[in-house]
Write a structure and sequence with these properties.
Elements lengths: L11 E4 L2 E4 L6 H12 L9 H16 L4 E7 L15 E8 L2 H6 L8 E6 L11 E7 L8 H11 E12 L5 H15 L12 H11 L2 E14 L2 H10 L15 H15 L5 E13 L24 H14 L1
Parallel strand pairs: 3-4, 3-6, 4-5, 6-7
Antiparallel strand pairs: 1-2, 7-9, 8-9
């Protein structure tokens, strides 16, 4: 039932000089059922705390881009974790896309005068947009099988100098739960069952942006640590978030003995008298579609200051200013 990083995300594999997309890793129909089940929970808002926080942080990065956006697409909008923070000050039209119809109905949109459109769209499917100024995606893409294809489709729907801003759970997400389940499976079952799902690493996201053709890339990570009374409450909350396991080769049933053993191991290895921690690693990324108006690096060899002289940088700057004044 856990969403964790058991191994490096097998997004890309090399065949000669060609880069090929990987095999199917996730059961998208199962993920849809999980999201629909979570949306029909009367207490669905109780489990929004992680995605609400990350959505707020991602929306803050939208505000850091000082320009007016005519059309913004929120891909995998969930319950409006980013969309609810969008403002008419810099966005004219917002299209909210989500694979789960029930979640899309519940999604919170902007409160002010932004034109809002809602579409049921799978992140793995075609994107029916053109000349989009900005595509945002918050904690949705880590369940996509063909991430290279999704990044390329986003690139095609952006206008020149358009931006792709998003985040997804990274490889160190819930490492405590992963290790505990693995040790419990070894002890009780004599092997490791696939109760965990692979996630992307920072280097994978950078490679994906480069392969899709994005320039001026930025990739960084953040960690959110949350305390729980025990591992059981963590697993219940993961199910409420619709972040339970959807790997194609997952084991449908986790024996009760394994759960109790994993909870004890979790408490012993990571817990204290207050409870147990859970780590959520979030990878943020930003890439731009190429455009002639964008800044370009200077030609190789055009530098006027040697790296060996960096220790006297202040002196060099003063000399340059003095030279400019005399000229």
């Amino acid at each position: 039932m856990a969403v964790v990083a058991a191994a490096r995300w097998p997004l890309l594999r090399l065949t000669g000089s060609r880069v090929m997309s990987s095999m199917t890793i996730f059961d998208r129909s199962a993920k849809l059922r999980q999201r629909e089940r979570a949306a029909n929970n009367p207490e669905v808002e109780v489990f929004d705390y992680v995605k609400d926080e990350v959505g707020y942080r991602l929306a803050d990065r939208v505000f850091d881009i000082k320009r007016q956006f005519k059309h913004v697409v929120d891909l995998g909008c969930g319950r409006g974790y980013v969309s609810q923070h969008i403002s008419a000050d810099n966005v004219a039209k917002l299209t909210m896309c989500e694979m789960s119809p029930s979640i899309l109905k519940q999604a919170k949109g902007p409160e002010d005068g932004v034109e809002v459109e809602r579409l049921v769209i799978d992140e793995e499917g075609p994107l029916p947009f053109q000349d989009v100024d900005l595509v945002v995606s918050s904690l949705s893409l880590h369940w996509v099988n063909d991430l290279p294809g999704t990044f390329e489709r986003v690139m095609k729907c952006l206008k020149p100098d358009g931006a792709f801003l998003g985040c997804l759970f990274g490889g160190d997400t819930l490492f405590e739960l992963r290790c505990s389940l693995q040790l419990a499976s070894l002890e009780r079952s004599g092997g490791i069952a696939p109760h965990v799902s692979p996630m992307a690493h920072v280097r994978d996201v950078g490679s994906l942006l480069t392969r899709a053709g994005f320039v001026m890339q930025t990739v960084d990570t953040d960690e959110i640590k949350i305390g729980y009374p025990s591992m059981i409450e963590l697993m219940i909350d993961l199910q409420g978030m619709a972040e339970n396991n959807a790997a194609i080769n997952r084991v449908a049933h986790l024996p009760r003995d394994n759960i109790l053993a994993a909870a004890s191991i979790y408490k012993e290895l990571y817990g204290d008298e207050k409870g147990v921690p859970a780590t959520f690693q979030v990878i943020y990324f930003l890439g731009w579609k190429p455009d002639p108006s964008q800044p370009k690096p200077l030609e190789r060899g055009s530098g006027e200051v040697s790296i060996k002289d960096l220790y006297r940088l202040d002196e060099i700057v003063k000399e340059i200013h003095k030279k400019d004044r005399t000229e």
